[in-house]
From TrEMBL:
<dbReference type="InterPro" id="IPR036968">
    <property type="entry name" value="Enolpyruvate_Tfrase_sf"/>
</dbReference>
<feature type="binding site">
    <location>
        <position position="362"/>
    </location>
    <ligand>
        <name>3-phosphoshikimate</name>
    </ligand>
</feature>
<keyword id="KW-0963">Cytoplasm</keyword>
<keyword id="KW-0808">Transferase</keyword>
<dbReference type="Pfam" id="PF00275">
    <property type="entry name" value="EPSP_synthase"/>
</dbReference>
<feature type="binding site">
    <location>
        <position position="187"/>
    </location>
    <ligand>
        <name>phosphoenolpyruvate</name>
    </ligand>
</feature>
<comment type="similarity">
    <text>Belongs to the EPSP synthase family.</text>
</comment>
<keyword id="KW-0028">Amino-acid biosynthesis</keyword>
<dbReference type="InterPro" id="IPR023193">
    <property type="entry name" value="EPSP_synthase_CS"/>
</dbReference>
<feature type="binding site">
    <location>
        <position position="43"/>
    </location>
    <ligand>
        <name>3-phosphoshikimate</name>
    </ligand>
</feature>
<feature type="binding site">
    <location>
        <position position="408"/>
    </location>
    <ligand>
        <name>phosphoenolpyruvate</name>
    </ligand>
</feature>
<feature type="domain" description="Enolpyruvate transferase">
    <location>
        <begin position="27"/>
        <end position="443"/>
    </location>
</feature>
<feature type="active site" description="Proton acceptor">
    <location>
        <position position="335"/>
    </location>
</feature>
<feature type="binding site">
    <location>
        <position position="38"/>
    </location>
    <ligand>
        <name>phosphoenolpyruvate</name>
    </ligand>
</feature>
<comment type="subunit">
    <text>Monomer.</text>
</comment>
<feature type="binding site">
    <location>
        <position position="39"/>
    </location>
    <ligand>
        <name>3-phosphoshikimate</name>
    </ligand>
</feature>
<dbReference type="InterPro" id="IPR001986">
    <property type="entry name" value="Enolpyruvate_Tfrase_dom"/>
</dbReference>
Length: 450
């Protein structure tokens, strides 16, 4: 049911999300079903395409990023049914059998699609591929995957010494390496592991801190041979295995749940139940930080679904206090920092976020954009080279803000607007569909005027 104080204004292809807090105030109530996990959705489509036989994916995220992955792997020869149902079927083509596409592969806005796919393409002997993305993706750094792939013997060309897309790839027989990654990045780790699937010998990736481990879990489920040394944050893949199609059940995305967890915690009088949330420990940094800030979040009905831990999360409004977010927890909450910045605006005291320089090379420079847009609303946020300093407790006022076409920024600003006086307009809000196509309708359903 649509309520008048959350509405969409559409002008040509651009959507503005208008949030007008009623004078009587508002609170949030209800049960929320969140979309499927984006990281797991990409990996299920890719491994399904590389496997022998059929893969069935339940609960795939029907957002724009997985659509880009599906489009690329269709062009590479996998049969993937239209992404319009809860159950997606992929007829795999078998490892090493991808076709040479007739046109450029376009990863759209999705860093995960482009970086993981590069590892797969580089190891497809004798075939030539070209890859690109939208203007945001074409400005994001690719050397972090190109360099280790070149060490394995890959042939890759592109702008600025092959550090920026568009890129061209000549598939080669690769050799296993031991790679000490300078950054904790699941995209780098996964790219190298995927390249290692068909490389000669063993391929090892060692990270400075643990990043999300969905690739490791799913590769093993599809039949790859892997060994994990969690003390050293090291994973080894043994080349030459065969992958077999599987049934994958995709849990809800904790990165999408994060918007409701913060909304429920900061909007007075709220109580929300967010159902079916993936709570893989490599992703739950957000829960640890919100608990540190004094949020009231209970995990209910904890269970394991197809190898991934899942729970329902109940959040109630509470008074938050500031905290420090830095160090090894950063990769376990990297995509949640924009919405954590919103939580910090409504917390007592000054929150400091450090070691998060990776945010500068996401879909937008999330440090600069969150600071500038929250400050337009009246917050006191200071940019640090590698994070943010947020003085909590200043009231916000509705103004015009911009998503910079970044989905996480659009949704974070919408949640901030729930506690701002007057009318907030979030321009270019259509970006939310990258990871959360139903964000606005869910927001409309849970908002109640007091
Ligand atoms: O592997 C993945 O699915 C992802 C890894 C993270 O990126 P980095 O590996 O660049 O940190 C994250 O920000 C992105 O949304 C998804
Ligand atoms: C950074 C993100 O995704 P990607 O790197 O896949 O574009 C994200 O979803 O926040």
């Amino acid at each position: 049911m649509s309520v008048p104080f959350v509405r969409l204004k559409v002008v040509e292809n651009q959507q503005s999300l208008v949030i007008e807090k009623p004078v009587s105030g508002l609170s949030l109530h209800g049960n929320i079903q969140i979309p499927g996990d984006k990281s797991i959705s990409h990996r299920a489509l890719m491994l399904g395409a590389l496997a022998q036989g059929e893969t069935q994916i339940q609960g795939l995220l029907l957002g724009e990023d997985p659509r880009s992955t599906a489009e690329c792997f269709r062009a590479l020869g996998a049969e993937i049914c239209p992404l319009n149902t809860e159950l997606v079927r992929v007829q795999g083509i078998g490892l090493g059998n991808l076709l040479e596409p007739l046109d450029v592969l376009n990863a759209g806005n999705s860093g995960t699609t482009l970086r993981l796919m590069l590892g797969i393409l580089a190891s497809h002997l004798g075939r030539f591929f070209t890859v690109t993305g939208d203007s945001s993706l074409r400005s994001r750094p690719m050397s972090r995957v190109v360099k280790p792939l070149q060490e394995m013997g890959a042939k890759i060309w592109g702008r600025k010494d092959a550090s920026l897309a568009p890129l061209a790839v000549q598939g080669k027989q690769l050799k296993g390496i031991i790679y000490h990654s300078p950054i904790a990045s699941a995209q780098v780790k996964s790219c190298i592991l995927l390249a290692g699937l068909m490389a000669e010998g063993e391929t090892t990736v060692i990270e400075p801190a643990l990043s999300r481990d969905h690739s490791e879990r799913m590769l093993q489920a599809f039949g790859a041979k892997l060994s994990v040394d969690s003390e050293r944050n090291s994973v080894t893949i043994f080349g030459g295995a065969k992958l077999t199609g599987q049934t994958v059940i995709v849990p809800g995305d904790i990165s999408s749940a994060a918007f409701w967890l913060v909304a429920g915690a900061i909007v007075p009088g709220s109580e929300l139940l967010v159902a079916n949330v993936g709570v893989n420990p490599t992703r739950t940094g957000i829960l640890e930080v919100l608990e540190m800030m004094g949020a009231d979040i209970q995990q209910e009905n904890q269970r394991i679904v197809a190898g991934e831990p899942v729970a329902d999360l109940r959040v109630k409004y509470s008074n938050l206090k500031s905290c420090e977010i830095a160090g090894d927890i950063i990769p376990r909450l990297i995509d949640e920092i924009p919405i954590l910045a919103v939580a910090a605006v409504f917390a007592e005291g000054t929150t400091v976020i450090r070691n998060a320089e990776e945010l500068r090379v996401k879909e937008s420079d999330r440090i600069a954009v969150m600071a500038s847009q929250l400050n337009l609303m009246g917050a006191k946020v200071t940019e640090l080279p590698d994070g943010l300093e947020i003085a909590g407790g200043t009231p916000l006022t509705g103004v015009d803000v911009d998503s910079y076409t970044d989905h996480r920024i659009a949704m974070s600003l919408a949640i901030a607007a729930l506690n701002a006086q007057g009318i907030t307009t979030i321009n270019r809000a259509e970006a939310a569909a990258i990871s959360y196509p139903n964000f606005t309708s869910t927001l409309q359903q849970i908002c109640q005027s007091n």
